Amino acid sequence: MKKLFHLILRSPVVKAAINPSFGKVKEVRSGKICIVLSEENMLGDLVIHNFIVQQLTLYGYSVAFCVSTPFYRRFRFFFEEHCMAVKVFVLPEKGRDLARFAGSIRKEGIKAVILDECPQVDAVFFYRAGVPVIIGPSEKRSPFYSREYRLNKLELHYTGISGALLQLLEDSSEKKGQHVISPYFPYRDIPIGEFGDRKDAGLAVHMGGGNYWNRKWPQERYIEICRLFLRHYEGKLFLIGGQDEYQANEEIRHILVETEDATGRVINCCGSDLHRTASVIAASKAFIGNDSAPMHIAVALNKRVMGIFGPSAISVVNPTQYDQRNITIRSYMECVPCNNAQCRLPDDKKLSCLTSLSTDMVWEHLQRVI
Q1: Which of 322, 324, 283 is nearest to 183 (CA)?
Q2: Co-location of 152 and 204 in the same domain
Q3: Pairing relation of β-strands 203-206 and 133-135?
Q4: Alpha helices, DSSP H only, in the chain?
Q5: Which of 105, 181, 258, 309 could form a disulfide with 129 if both were Cys (CB 3.0 to 4.6 A apart)?
Q6: Which residues contact residue 65 at a Cβ distance below 8 angstroms, ignoring those fewer than 6 apart?
Q7: pLDDT confidence of 144, banded at 50, 70, 90?
Q8: Domain count across the chain
Q9: Are 91 and 110 in contact (CB under 8 A)?
């Protein structure tokens, strides 16, 4: 039934009747753009999407997000406290409200819609609302966006996505190669009592990687890095992460305090909200961690960042691309990057892209960052 529906919508006559402005990318010079986020997006993706919003705003566009109801509930704290978009459209859960949803899009005067990878919202709602153009990254053929306007974000670093979008929307070659992104993360600075004199603030460490099993450098190696830092530097060590990482980091804090005689120097900040987490990162001299939201926040706060990568698509989120002072530690194995659900290497070599990164290698690079 859905195939037949899409086939009908492909008809030039139907397109002209429902959405006469469809596909006219070159006519979009200003106005509101809506980015439809994917159900697969995590907190780190939302932080980076703020960078895109920021840059498009500088060029005269205003940006809205469109998300599903469950997605909004999951990241409500972000949309209410840290989101730079001018509006967040929430797709209703009940089918009878979908017509009203399409009406709200029309009322807002959306000029273009950009579908993120694997969007959770069917583009037909925007198509029916008469949105002039839909740019989609998916390989899946759809009557709701033109193939020539397909944008595959997995082939671009986030510093280039805004420029690529501007080129598509404005068909301008002037911005090609000239687009510079200066990321920013909005947060409320919170006084951190544990800092004391901020000149003593040292290193922010994030050992987690959200729900991604393949983004976590072995925890015991992070512990060794923390030990080396406490022995060679006077600054404090701040362990950051989510609520689910608190207990593990509390155990690590106890180990470091007892074995390194570091009373008062190791602070467990896991479970803090993003305002406090960002305040801790901002006051620290440097950040080390896996590919995750805290790493992207550290980049946005212009900290010296050292990112540790496994099979992630580093070409998309490489922190060195924002600032050459940052350092990226990664493996150069042939199978990297890898988007497989499980590592396909033999058991004795599983996740070698992460486990092959030695403590000595990471420590050598971290000293340069500090």
Answers
A1: 322
A2: no
A3: unpaired
A4: 2-9, 12-18, 43-58, 69-74, 76-81, 98-108, 124-128, 158-170, 219-232, 246-259, 274-283, 293-300, 314-317, 352-355, 359-369
A5: 105
A6: 34, 35, 36, 37, 49, 79, 83, 85, 87, 88, 89
A7: low
A8: 2
A9: no
Neighbours of 156 (CB within 10 A): 17
Put residue 229 in one of left, alpha, beta given phi > 0 → left and psi -120 to 50 → alpha.
Answer: alpha
How long is the chain?
370
302 shares its domain with 215: yes
Tens digit of pLDDT for each residue in 296-339? Answer: 999 999 999 999 988 887 878 889 888 888 999 988 877 777 77
Co-location of 297 and 150 in the same domain: no
What is the helix (H) or strand (E) element at residue 197, kind and residue range?
none
Q: Judge if 292 and 156 occupy the same domain.
A: no
pTM of the model: 0.88
Nearest to 240 by CA among 212, 200, 272: 272
275 lies in the same domain as 348: yes
Give the tokens for residue 58: 């500088």
Domain final position from 109, 135, 170: 170
Pair 153, 234 in one domain = no
DSSP 8-class letter at 341: S
* Contact predicate 269/243, CB 8 Å: no
Structure tokens at 359: 């403590």
Q: What is the pLDDT of residues 75-133, one digit of tens each?
A: 999 999 999 999 999 988 776 777 788 888 888 888 888 887 666 677 778 888 888 88
Domain region containing 29: 13-170
Report the DSSP beta bridge partners of residue 38: 119
> Residue 233: inside a domain, yes or no?
yes
Q: What residues form DSSP beta bridges with 239?
A: 205, 268
- 197 shares a domain with 159: no
Whether 182 maps to a domain, the answer reads: no
In a domain, 176, yes or no: no
What's the one-letter identity of residue 334?
A: E
What residues does 306 pair with on adjacent strands?
288, 327
